[in-house]
Amino acid sequence: MFQQYRQSPAETSPVDDVVAICREISSNIISTERNVSVAKMIIHRLFRNPHIDLCSILPPLIPQHYQDSPYAHIQSLVNGNSLFFETVLEDDQLCTDLWDSILNQCDVSAAPTDPAKDSVLFSAVSQYVTRMLPCDESTSTSMSVPHPPKTTHQTIRTPLQLFRADSPLVNRISIVSEDRSQMMSVSNVSFQPRLVQNFCGFITKSCTTAQFTNANKLLLIRFLLKQFHVFCQFNTCDPEVDNWKLDLMTSAPFKMPLFDFFKSSITQVPTSTVFRDIIMCWLTYARPWRYHNMSDPSDFPPAAKYRQFFEQNVEFYEIILGKVIKRFSAFEIGEELIPSLRAVVEFSWKEPQTLLLRHIQLDIQPHCLELLEHMQVVVRLNMATIRQEQEAHSGFWNMLFHSGESMKVQSCQRICNDLLALMKDSDSYVGTHLVQEMDVTDVPGTSNQAFNGSTEKCTSLLNETPKSGLGIPDHFIDAPSNHMLLTPIGQRQVLNRERRFDFSKCAKDDPKGPIRSYELGLAVRFTTALAQKLNEFSLVKSIGSHYSERTLIGSIVRKVMYPPVPNLDPNATVPAYSARIVRSPPLLRLRYFASYQSIFLIIWFMMAMNYGFVFALVSIILIALFITTVCLVELDSVS
Q: Which ranges does the record mark as transmembrane (predicted)?
C-alpha cells in the first residue's frame, strides 16, 4: 500500500491542471504501504482545491481518450478500491476530512445535477458508500482482523460478518455517546460498527442548515438516504442482524438533524427546482418500502413491516408532509413539479402509504383535496393562456405563416394533461368530482383573486385523526359487463371499512330493486312480470335495439326503457352490487305505474270514462276543496 513519497516542489504544475496534479501525486508514491500524509495530500490537492470542480469532471465521450482524461487519472487515485481509500477507512480523522471535502465540493460546485450524477466525485462517493454499507457479498474481498487474546487469527470472509455480535472487529470497538440518538444496539448492547457510524455522521453533516443547500448537495443527500434504506433492508439470512438493521432504519442516528433540515429548507426554499429536489429527498426517506428488494421491484413488502418506522418518524409525515402540501401553493406549478406533486398526493390513496398513515392516526385526504382544488385553478389559468395564444395567432396572416404551436402553449398543454390525469385518479380512488367540476366551471378569464383564494385555503396542518372517508375501494372495470369489480386489496378495504362505494350514484329506477315506500308491492311484481313478458315480442325487441344509438329515436327509447345489463355505455358505470349479474335486454319502464300516485290516476281515469263528465267535474271540485282545506290548516298552524 502507500509508502513514503518524495517531496517535490508544488509550483512545477499549476493548481488547476488536474492531469498534472494527478501525475505529480502518482510520481511521489513509490511503494505500497499506507501513509496518512499521502492521503492528506490527495485530499488537499484534489478535494479541497478551489480551482478543481470534481462535479464537472465527466468521463470522455470518446472511449479512446479515456486513459489520458482527467476523469481516469482521478479515478485511479481515489476509487473505492484504491490505496487512498483503504488508508481513509483506517483513520477516523481522515474519514471526517474526506467527507467534509466532499460536502464542500458539492456546496461550491456550479455544475448542473444531470451531468454531475456521472461525475468523478459522485462515482467515487458511490464506491465509498458501497464499501461502507455492503449489500452484496460479491462486492468485497476477504480481510483479516486482529482477534482477541487466546486466538491467533480469524478471517472475516463476508462483509456482513462485520455486523454480527461476535465479530472480532465489533468487539474491539468501544463507542460511548452522550446523545442517545447517536447510538444503535445489537442484542441490547450499546455499540455500532465504526463504518456505519461514520456513514451516519456523514449524513448528519450533510443536513446542516447553516447555509442553504444547492442542487448537487441535495442529489448527494438523496443518494445517501437511498443507500441507507437499501442497506438496512438487505436480507442477510440472519434474523438477529436483519432485526438490528431494521431497528437502525427505524431510529436512524441522523433522524432529528434530517427533520430539522427538511423543516428549515422547505420554509426558505427559493425556487421551484430546489423545492422539487427537497421533496425528492423527503420521498426517498419517507418511502422505505421502495427499496425493499432492489433486485426484484415487483416484490412488494407487507405494510406491517413499516409500522414501527412510521411510529418513530411520525413528525416526518405530520409536520413535513403538511409543510410540503402548503408550500406547493407558493410556487407556479410547472412541468418539473408535477411528478413530485403526484407522489405527494398519492399518499391519500396509494398503498401502503394510506394504510400506514391511518395506523398513526393521520388523514391527509382533506388536505390533498384542498391542494387539488388549487390545481383546478392552475388548469384554468393554463387553459386561459392557451386560448389567448390561439386568439393572438388566429388572424389570416398568422394562420398562413404560423409555424406551429409555441413552446409556451405546448408546455401549458402538458401541464393541463398531467394535472387532469391526476384529478381523474383522485376521482377514481377517493371519490372526488374534480374533473366533472372542471367541465362545468371551466370558463375563460379566471381572475387572480380566485388563484389567491385557493392559495389561502391550503393552510391547515396535518394534525387531525382520520375520518371514515368515502373513498372508492381499489377495483377494476370488467370489460364484458362494464361493472366495477373489487380487487383483493379493495375487498380488504371494504371489510376493514376503510373505503366504500357511493351507491347513491346507482340507477334509482332499477326494475329489480326493492319495493319502495310509495309503491304497491303487488303492482311492482305485476308490472315487472308484464314488462318481461312484453320483451318477448319482436316489436319491443326492435325498439330496444335502438337503445345505444345517439339519435332522436335512441334518446326516446332511453326514456321509456331501462338500460340493458351489461350497459356498455362508459358514462353509465355503476358499482356492482351483486355477486352474479344476470344479462337482460332493455326493459320497458312499467314500474312507474306501480306507485300509489299512478294507481290513483289510473282508477280516476277509468271511473271518469265510465261515469262521464259529471263524475269528472265533481271529483275535481272535491279534490280542489280538499287541497284548499289542507293549505288553510297549515297556514293556521303556522300563524
A: 613-633
Q: What is the pLDDT averaged over residues 345-362?
A: 89
Share of the chain above pLDDT 70, in %: 74
Is residue 70 within 8 Å of 177, Cβ to Cβ? no
Candidate from 273-282, 378-387, 464-473, 569-578 with smallest mean pLDDT: 464-473
Q: Exposed (0-12), middle (13-18) or buried (19+): which is 15, by Cβ within 10 Å? A: middle
Residue type, 561: M
Residues 114/117/121/123 CA torsion (nearest 10 deg) = -160
Report which of 213, 178, 174 is spatially closest to residue 192, judged by C-alpha positions: 174
Write down the number of H helices and E strands in the chain: 29, 8
Q: For residue 273, count other CB atoms closer than 10 A to its CB.
A: 15
Best-predicted range by mean pLDDT among 5-9, 463-467, 470-474, 629-633? 629-633
Q: Whole-angstrom Cα distance, residue 273 to residue 258?
A: 20
CA-based max dimension of the chain: 130
The amino acid that residue 552 corresponds to is L
Within 8 A by CB and 6+ apart from 94, the residues are 36, 39, 40, 43, 87, 88
Residues with Cβ within 8 Å of residue 37, at least 6 apart in sequence = 5
Task: State the virtual CA torsion across 379, 382, 386, 389 in degrees, nearest 10.
Answer: 160
Look at 548 and 132; give whichever has higher pLDDT.
Answer: 132
For residue 87, give the amino acid letter.
Answer: T
Torsional sign, CA 109, 340, 333, 267: negative
DSSP labels for 434-470? HHHHHHHH--S---HHHHHHHHHH----S-SPPP---
Query: How would you classify residue 497: left for phi > 0, otherwise alpha for psi between -120 and 50, otherwise beta?
Result: left
Residue 262 to residues 211, 318, 353: CA-CA distances in angstroms? 13, 13, 20
pLDDT digits (tens, 9 = 90+) for 533-545: 888 898 888 888 8
Q: Is the peptide bond before 352 cis (omega within 30 degrees of 0)?
A: yes
Radius of gyration (Cα) for the chain, nearest Å?
36
